[in-house]
Amino acid sequence: MRYAATGIALMVTGLIGSAQAAVKDSTSTGFTVENQVLIQASPAQVWEAMTAQIDHWWPKDHSWWGAASTLTIDPRAGGCFCEIAGGRQAQHLQVVFVDPDKTLRMSGGLGPMQAMGLHGVAEWTLQAEGAATRVSWRYRAGGYTPDDLAKLAPVVDTVQAQQLAGLASWLQQPR
């Protein structure tokens, strides 16, 4: 929640452009959500923060082991978006496509969707807009489950918006 509040405060002060969030489509068997934000940083700076600094901005309340864990992304085909807390380990997603400073695509089930047997594709795209970067994060998930995935879509959309706000907030902090 701290990251979401910080992201809202930064939007008000103009350091981060307006955020856009949307459930693009949803059915009982799958959904697509997309969040966007304009960040006053170059694509290279956003890429570095997105990949090498994820442990600093990803909200720990949306990880398996909270503050005890370390999050990493190895931005290469076959690389891992992983979480490690001592002997406990989780692969959140596997990297399947890398175009540095432009596109990072990963495959797998995020959070509880992993145990539900669902599969998804998370794609981050970066587009320069003057001195800023428009960051789009789309996640499309689906598969068999007795649960109605249309009900899960707004929850995933909200969590994804918090995570994107965490990235934007991290990039605007003085170092």
Automatic annotation (TrEMBL):
| Key word Disulfide bond present | no
Q: Which InterPro entries match?
A: Polyketide_cyclase/dehydratase (IPR019587), START-like_dom_sf (IPR023393)
Gene3D superfamilies for the chain:
3.30.530.20
Keyword match Lipid metabolism:
no
Specify the signal sequence span: 1-21
Q: Which UniProt keywords apply?
A: Signal
- Please identify the protein, giving its name as recorded: Polyketide cyclase/dehydrase
Q: In the record, what lineage is assigned to the organism producing the protein?
A: Bacteria, Pseudomonadati, Pseudomonadota, Gammaproteobacteria, Lysobacterales
